[in-house]
Design brief:
Layout: E1 12-15, E2 21-25, E3 39-44, H1 54-63, H2 65-72, E4 88-92, E5 100-104, H3 115-132, E6 137-140, H4 152-166, E7 174-178, H5 180-184, E8 199-202, E9 208-211, E10 226-231, H6 241-250, H7 252-259, E11 275-279, E12 287-291, H8 302-319, E13 324-326, H9 339-352
Parallel strand pairs: 2-7, 3-5, 3-6, 6-7, 10-12, 10-13
Antiparallel strand pairs: 1-2, 4-5, 8-9, 11-12
């Protein structure tokens, strides 16, 4: 069950590759450990690295005075600065149950011109240092989300996508993220939380990601450069769930348009992981992009198929000059894909191509 995205103890666990997994949990990070020899927790330090408030103070208190002494021996790169923003340093963990502490400094959200760059670098450099130090298990807190005021939703997206991006270079690492995602899902405030229930945050200077509940068939931006994604089946002639709702709202013209899509083999117009585009007819958007996700318990590599579905939708949208695109939770209904695992794949894939879209 752990690899399928849920456990009875409240920890969300899912595979991000054949050798790596991501866990999302609440708890006291100073109590976390796996084996005490190849595990590390991340400390949200300040640039001096001599302890501070919040989690930094808690970790120093749990590790004992030896941690401060070890930090003091870290060379200064400029006067009083041992670890600049976005970088990371490593020390033993002393009285903590893990073998190492990786210290990183995140950005002050309101004081940085590009806080997302500094935060991504902080996660990336922690993972790089873990790899160099032969660490197999690493636990992150929600970096910069306390007194540094980084919006939880935006920080969670950066955390997930950076872990996913780094997975290809890590062998068998298990990453635990404390509080960042579970708190984000509760809408803890900040610039990513709007009064209308829409979670709205910047991915780049030109693109944003919105997370919202609602009827996707009612969504639109301008009716000329927008599209919704339909969670279709391979026949593309309508079905249950979102597929049926989209077809009903678009009217019978949509089914007729889908029928004209060439079959790649008998009865199959859109194989799993691929995407096709049609006009939207009576829907308020300009296009419908039809994608077929994996059946979670049947597909041998559902994460590959799901990522391809999102990627091919975005590719098709770009080719058709679509600037705004709305996705449902592909494969999370009757196809049984766990929401947490699917969300991580969706967000990280969108981050790959965020510069090509406005929203």
């Amino acid at each position: 069950m752990a690899s399928k995205g849920g456990r009875d103890d409240g920890i969300k666990v899912f595979k991000i590759s054949s050798t790596s997994s991501l866990k999302i949990q609440r708890g006291d990070i100073t109590m976390w450990s796996v084996n005490g020899t190849s595990d590390a927790i991340v400390n949200t330090a300040n640039e001096k690295m001599l302890g501070g408030g919040g989690l930094d103070g808690v970790i120093h208190g749990a590790a004992g005075p030896e941690l401060r002494e070890a930090c003091y021996t870290v060379p200064e790169v400029s006067l009083g600065i041992r670890c600049p923003k976005g970088e990371a340093r490593i020390t033993p963990a002393f009285q903590l149950p893990v073998s190492h502490v990786i210290h990183t400094v995140g950005p002050f959200y309101d004081n940085e011109n590009h806080p997302e760059v500094a935060l991504r670098n902080a996660y990336r450099n922690c993972i790089k240092l873990a790899k160099e130090s032969n660490i197999d298990y690493i636990a992150f807190p929600a970096i910069s989300c306390g007194t540094y005021r980084y919006p939880l939703e935006e920080a969670a997206t950066i955390a997930i996508s950076t872990v996913m991006e780094s997975d290809a270079t890590l062998s068998g690492i298990t990453t635990s993220v404390f509080r960042a995602l579970t708190m984000a899902s509760k809408g803890g405030g900040g610039e990513g939380n709007r009064g209308d229930g829409v979670k709205d945050f910047k991915l780049s200077l030109s693109s944003s990601l919105k997370i919202q509940r609602g009827d996707i068939t009612m969504w639109s931006v301008n009716g000329t450069s927008d599209a919704i994604v339909n969670a279709a089946n391979e026949k593309m002639l309508g079905g249950g769930g979102v597929d049926g709702a989209v077809h009903r709202a678009a009217g019978p013209e949509l089914r007729r348009a889908c029928y004209t899509v060439p079959e790649v083999r008998p009865g199959i117009r859109c194989p799993k992981g691929e995407a096709r585009i049609t006009p939207a007819f009576q829907l308020p958007v300009f296009h419908v992009i039809h994608a077929v996700g994996p059946v979670y318990h049947v597909d041998n590599h559902p994460e590959v198929t799901l990522r391809n579905a999102y990627r091919n939708c975005l590719k098709l949208a770009k080719e058709n000059k679509i600037e705004y695109i709305a996705f449902p939770a592909i494969s999370c209904g009757a196809y049984g894909y766990p929401y947490d695992e699917a969300a991580a794949i969706a967000i990280s894939t969108i981050m790959e191509l965020d510069g090509d879209f406005k929203e």
